[in-house]
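Quick one:
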Amino acid sequence: MSVKIHTIALLLLSVYLCCQLSAARRASRRRPCCVQVTSRNMSAEVVGETYREQAAGSPCVKAIIFHTNDGPLCADPIAQWVMDRKLC
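Output:
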């Protein structure tokens, strides 16, 4: 093969690898999502007044995410304690 073909092949390989690394970095920066929720009353575990709503989208399920000392708590948005907590 000629030098020109080698150069083009290396350039294409570099572009491909760069795109793959960029996609991997974007994927690693995404927030983890809830794949299951609890309807059990966990209000005593919740720290602070803030929460985040998560929409359903595979593999994530619809959830309300509260903060606890042990990390995020994925709660069922239609659980009564969650609706009460959101109104506060």
